Amino acid sequence: MILVGELSLWIALLMGLWAVTLSFAGGWLRREDLIVSGERGLFAATGFVVLASLGLWTALLTSDFSLRYVASFTSANLPIVYKFSAFWGGQAGSMLFWCLVLAVYGALATWTNRSKNRALMPWVTGTNALVLLFFVAATAIAANPFERLEWVPPDGRGLNPQLQNPAMAIHPPLLYFGYVATAIPFAFAVGALVTRRLDAEWLGAVRKWSLISWVFLTVGILLGMWWAYVELGWGGYWMWDPVENASLLPWLTGTAFLHSIMIQEKRGMLRKWNVTLVVATFLLSIFGTFITRSGIIASVHSFAQSDIGAWFATFLVLVFAASVWLVSIRLKDLESKAELEAMISREAAFLYNNLVLVGIAFSVLWGTLFPILSEWIRGTKITVGESFFNTVNVPLGLLLLALTGIGPLIAWRRASVANIQRQFAGPAFVGVVAAAALWTLGARELYPLMAWGLGAFVAGTIVQEFYKGVGARMRMHGEHVALALVRLVSRNRRRYGGYIVHAGIVMLFSAFAGMAFKAEHDVTLTDGQVFTTKDPYGREWTFTSEGISAFKALNRDVVAIALRPESEGRSFPVLTSEKRQHFDSRGNPTFQPSTEVGILSLGRQDVYLVLAGTIGDRAEVRINFTPLVMWVWNGGILMALGGLIVMWPQSERKRQGGYVTELAPQHAEAAGV
Amino acid sequence: MVDRREFLVGLGGLTAALLARELGGQQQGNFAPMDQNAYRPVLRPAKPNATPQLTVDARDALEKELKCQCTCVLDVYTCRTTDFTCGVSPAMHRDVLRLVDGGYTAEEIKAAFVETYGEVALTAPVKQGFNWAGYFVPSIVMATGGVVLTMMLRRWTQQAAATAVPAGSGAAPSAVAASDVEMARLQRALRDDGDDD
């Protein structure tokens, strides 16, 4: 199977070449036989990439240490789930994983469009196959996971202990699902540009794939945050690491696109801008991959410096140049009738939302690349860390939060004073009251106060929309509140799914603001000793040491500390934190010791315990109180749920909004549509 | 005489050494190895009659402005109290302690670290010279974008006003050019809560 896998990778390369050549030739010559052959070539390439992947999984699961990759990232005693996930644990394997996802996506896009978008499809298939061809070639030539060692070691090096975490087993593939999905809208954009079919035809397919990408990126990024929080032990979930930033960039431009596409769908405007966002999102995905794999920027997450960086740099430049050229020769075709009835309208709000999202993306990109610029221009290495990114992005984030509430409530085309008063009076009141209440309770820091005040405002807009919608259904159809809610959401998935995403955003921003009140304590405790302190809410806590224990687990030696937390007469489950030294199947230590933190998650805050080390019966520990961490994860779940609702297919019969708003916007507005 | 256990342990060690050499070029997952040799001593003689100028909180705040040099992106305070396997941040912390005990202020300590490591010792660029570009370019781009967008929107609204049907020139602007069938669909749609974003 391993040999089959290795051969399959090379055959996939040939099939990819076939698919590219035949698809483009078929599109150019308008010959259906060539187009069909190109599509079959892509399906065949997909099949061979799947075979290659099965070959690598076989090698990993059977511990075939004759492969350098298997010996580098697994050991005989590694739990089977991590042998499986080691597929994407290293450079070469994760490259093959990219190929796998890309091939399956490409095949799906071709298959689902077998009877529609036919004029576009040769170019879509050809572009997908071209991207796949690049990845398969880079994998086969520069980072081949089937490379063999000159001798077969009896055991492998094992997987980095910090990657032996359930979140890390699923976070990278989800991110890859998101990154790779940006290739499909890009392919459709290329198809639309080449064929000059730049009306709404291509947007339908593009929107679905953009949503798929957005949902996977959202979940992938949040799982990465969760992994950093529970595994790295520094008590936070986002450190503005270049690789983290790289995942955020396509998410930001993708989010901008999902908003601006609505304007093109409803008004036929922003054709150039939407094509630009699709191309930028794909380029940023490739850029993120380049950063992660080239070693050009120091990051705890990056792969070591390797030749593959040159491959990606070349690909990035070529795709950028080709995209700029293609857009520039189609500028006339991309012209659209740009008319706007009023500055105060949903179109304008969405455009400002786009400006802020793209502005944040630019500032993140700028901050990530600024150390390189500094080194090129001044010859001086600098660090751009958390304080820089927070200085630049927090005000923009607050502006975005405000627009999250404003945009969806302003009427399309023209908002009247009455509309604004009716829609915003209640939520604005809620926001002001919330901020005043928090001020009274002692919250004095400006940014957190603004975040919570604006969060309450946005939450008010969302609740108001659901209240109005459910109330209308109850009155008009005589439905029970629960049924009315379900039908309201199921018949207006885009609108109410979007609101649910916005509710998740509010929770995230509230949690980010909570980080400003994080409290940290470094403590030394002996068996039975008690540490007393106050949390950020002013409540008293005691932590009683239950002592240090040492034991052996599956593939590691463990030293653990246990603390019994109590607060105002209430006992909580014992918190434990561990120092782990992993070893291989012969008992030899592998990697540096790692730390497992203890977390007590409560709705209002997390209590976070880290064992620094032990000297005799004394344990050095760190205890953090971090407000609202739980809101990050719950907010993430809401965002994913909202995204899925938006994404869920809806029959044409039930989709009536465009008709309503096109025919009688004033009626639609009156009905609160 | 070597017993079986000693032999196996020795064999294991030899294998591990050979494997480490063989796989030396292969990186470890998506984790860059910490550079434990990055530490360089930051030594200054204590000031005469030195007394610490910083409280513990002020010292911790200062360490949050100094970057650990072990390839991680953490500051010295967070790194030394987090990973605990990094040898660089504890060594940098000891230098900070010595300088604090030597009577140096936070600014003097930061300057000493910059002198030894360069500007990369700080977690954010010093606000001077070219580094201002780092701080201001995003704001300038945003402001320019805002102005351009506002001008575009104004132009679009003016165009819309210019092409609007003048009052009294015919049908009312709000009139709907729809057939009876379409109007019936519209009524149905309004009743059923149309899908809108």
Shape descriptor of chain B reads elongated
Considering DSSP H and I runs of 4 or more, what fraction of the residues of chain A is helical?
55-70%
Largest sheet of chain A: 6 strands, antiparallel
Query: Which architecture name of the domain at 54-122 in chain B does CATH use?
Result: Orthogonal Bundle
Helix/strand class of chain A? alpha+beta
Arithmetic mean of pLDDT of chain B: 74
| N to C succession of SSEs of chain B | HHHHHHH
Average pLDDT value of chain A? 88
Helix residue percentage of chain B: 40-55%
Point out poorly predicted stretches of chain A: 655-673
Strand percentage of chain B lies at under 5%
Q: Number of helix segments of chain A?
A: 21
SS strand fraction of chain A = 5-15%
> Architecture of the domain at 1-159 in chain A, according to CATH?
Up-down Bundle
**Corresponding CATH superfamily of the domain at 54-122 in chain B:** Cytochrome C biogenesis protein
CATH topology of the domain at 1-159 in chain A: Four Helix Bundle (Hemerythrin (Met), subunit A)
User: Rg of chain A from C-alpha positions?
Assistant: 27 Å
Number of helices of chain B: 7
Under CATH at level 1, the class of the domain at 54-122 in chain B stands as Mainly Alpha
Rg of chain B (C-alpha, Å):
34 Å
Number of strands of chain A: 10
